[in-house]
């Protein structure tokens, strides 16, 4: 049996024909499972976004049973390091140029595997597919028109992937332009100079003062009730605590720490008190940087976190970094979540 790399393009197209299937809910499950695997293994401090794109993400129309995954990274200079990890996860490089690398997984000499993935490794903000996806999900009439076009092309070119793709190009470009206008900068992100530093007593004082504001404090699971208590905690730091301050350029904006470190386990806490930086993805990357730092300097196998169930921002930060929700419970009359991440899975 021929290896894939020894096959001609025509042989590959016949082995992997264009075959559309009705939408299947399991496609979302496959994406979530693969995203979890990728998140556990990639250096998330360099990952801007992981997203489900392509027709399997629309939730309604026929599509090839291939899950398209977008991975944006920064800086782009990290692409070879990340590509090497993806190859360990079973991905094969399909194409590469100066600004993009495409991978596939699930292509075998016998044909498609049960689960097939295309992974698109991109630079920050190279993500037109997100705008196209959202417009298709929100405008059923255009999604149906796209489905009809795909069905027509699949019948005409079942064994010619380039022709099938080229036949969709004008439609995709047209809708993407409309979506870009309609949605503005919905997915554009700014590069922030995030850094972690050692904590000093002056940081303790600033942190305590800034976390007295109710809007900040209401999201925190547990904080000192007095400045003296905060100082006592600082003075008592030992091998069971590991703490860093978060900076944007020269501006101190928050703290991140793990505590109750014992038996290779610890509890993670993070607070960005500078509200001007909320909702900008800084917490996600500060946590990713801290986890990478912990892996180097701490003997930990698992790290956990507790949060109030209405703290959606922290929930997104944890899930971006591969934490899995393990338990729901009540504290102070409020529903709470317990999350956990295995650090030894990080490549």
Account of the protein in words:
The chain has 347 residues and is of the alpha+beta class. It has two domains: 4-183, 2-Layer Sandwich (Beta Polymerase, domain 2), CATH 3.30.460.10; 194-345, Gcn5-related N-acetyltransferase (GNAT) (Aminopeptidase), CATH 3.40.630. The protein is built from eleven helices and 14 strands. The protein has helices at 9-15, 26-41, 79-88, 128-138, 140-156, 161-183, 201-210, 214-217, 227-235, 282-297, 312-320; strands at residues 20-21, 47-53, 63-64, 67-73, 92-96, 100-108, 111-123, 194-197, 242-248, 251-262, 265-272, 302-308, 324-331, 334-342. It has a seven-stranded mixed β-sheet, with helices on one face. A five-stranded mixed β-sheet has the order 2-4-7-6-5. A two-stranded antiparallel ribbon has the order 1-3. Helix 4 (128-138) packs across helix 5 and helix 5 runs antiparallel to helix 6 (161-183). The longest helix has 23 residues, at 161-183. The two termini are 33 Å apart. One of its GO terms (molecular function) is acyltransferase activity, transferring groups other than amino-acyl groups. It holds the Pfam family Acetyltransf_3.
């Amino acid at each position: 049996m021929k290896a894939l790399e020894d096959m001609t393009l025509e042989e590959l197209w016949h082995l992997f024909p264009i075959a559309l299937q009705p939408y299947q809910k399991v496609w979302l499950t496959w994406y979530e499972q693969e995203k979890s695997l990728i998140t556990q293994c990639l250096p998330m401090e360099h990952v801007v976004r992981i997203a489900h794109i392509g027709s399997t993400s629309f939730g309604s129309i026929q599509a090839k049973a291939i899950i398209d995954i977008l991975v944006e990274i920064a800086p782009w200079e990290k692409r070879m390091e990340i590509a090497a990890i993806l190859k360990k996860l079973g991905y094969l490089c399909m194409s590469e140029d100066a600004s993009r690398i495409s991978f596939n997984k699930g292509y075998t000499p016998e044909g498609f595997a049960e689960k097939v993935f295309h992974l698109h490794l991109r630079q920050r903000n190279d993500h037109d597919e997100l705008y196209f996806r959202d417009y298709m999900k929100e405008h059923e009439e255009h999604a149906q028109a796209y489905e009809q076009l795909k069905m027509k092309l699949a019948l005409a070119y079942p064994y010619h992937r380039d022709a099938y793709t080229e036949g969709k190009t004008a439609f995709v470009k047209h809708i993407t332009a409309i979506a870009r206008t309609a949605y503005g900068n919905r997915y554009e992100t700014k590069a922030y100079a995030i850094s972690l530093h050692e904590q000093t007593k002056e940081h303790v004082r600033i942190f305590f003062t800034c976390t007295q504001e109710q809007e900040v404090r209401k999201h925190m699971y547990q904080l000192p009730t007095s400045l003296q208590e905060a100082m006592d905690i600082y003075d008592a730091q030992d091998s069971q605590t590991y703490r860093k301050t978060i900076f944007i350029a020269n501006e101190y904006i928050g703290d991140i720490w793990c505590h109750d470190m014992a038996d290779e386990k610890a509890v993670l806490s993070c607070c960005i008190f500078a509200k001007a930086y909320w909702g900008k993805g800084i917490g996600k990357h500060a946590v990713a940087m801290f986890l990478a730092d912990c892996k180097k300097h701490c003997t930990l196998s698992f790290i956990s976190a507790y949060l109030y169930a209405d703290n959606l921002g922290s929930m997104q930060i944890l899930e971006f970094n591969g934490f899995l929700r393990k338990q729901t419970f009540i504290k102070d009359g409020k529903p709470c979540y317990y999350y956990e991440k295995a650090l030894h899975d990080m490549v």
